[in-house]
Amino acid sequence: MMPAMQPLRLALALAVALWSGAGDRTWTGQISDSACGIHHEETAEGAGQLSPHDCTLACVRGGSKYVLVSAGTVLPIANQDFAGLAESAGRTVKVAGTLQNGALVVTKIDKAD
């Protein structure tokens, strides 16, 4: 390995450790779905564009998974059966949880301030 790569690897390892650290963290973002992610473009036949809430629910019914979009990043949600995901779909919320293997394990969902 080239010596110049060592600082880069160390910085990357530190970033991953901080991002996936133990303990509950809080994110503010929108509950979305894995098909739409940041942008909802779902349309219903003859009904025009759906609201982010309705679009997320339609996509999840179609097989997509819930995700959290926070600060331009799409975080997969590990516990898809968490109570409150459907109710919060398409809405901006505060989510508490932990990151495990790159996915968010939700422990709490509250309305955003």
Number of domains: 1
Mean pLDDT across every amino acid position: 84
Helix content: 25-40%
Distance between the termini: 48 Å
Number of strands: 7
Give me the side-by-side strand order of the main sheet.
Answer: 5-4-1-6-7
The string of secondary-structure elements, in order, is: HEEEHEEHEE
Note the overall shape.
Answer: globular
The class by helix and strand makeup works out as alpha+beta
As residue ranges, the low-confidence spans are 10-14
**Rg measurement, Å:** 17 Å
Largest sheet features: 5 strands, antiparallel
- What is the beta-strand fraction? 35-45%
Task: List the total number of helices.
Answer: 3
Using brief descriptors, characterize the structure shown.
113 residues, alpha+beta, two-stranded antiparallel sheet, 3 helices, 7 strands
Walk me through this protein's architecture.
The radius of gyration is 17 Å and the shape is globular. The protein has 113 residues and is α+β, with helices and mostly antiparallel strands. The protein has helices at 5-19, 52-61, 85-88, and strands at residues 25-33, 43-44, 48-49, 66-70, 73-76, 92-100, 103-111. Strands 5-4-1-6-7 form a 5-stranded antiparallel beta sheet. The chain has one domain (22-111).
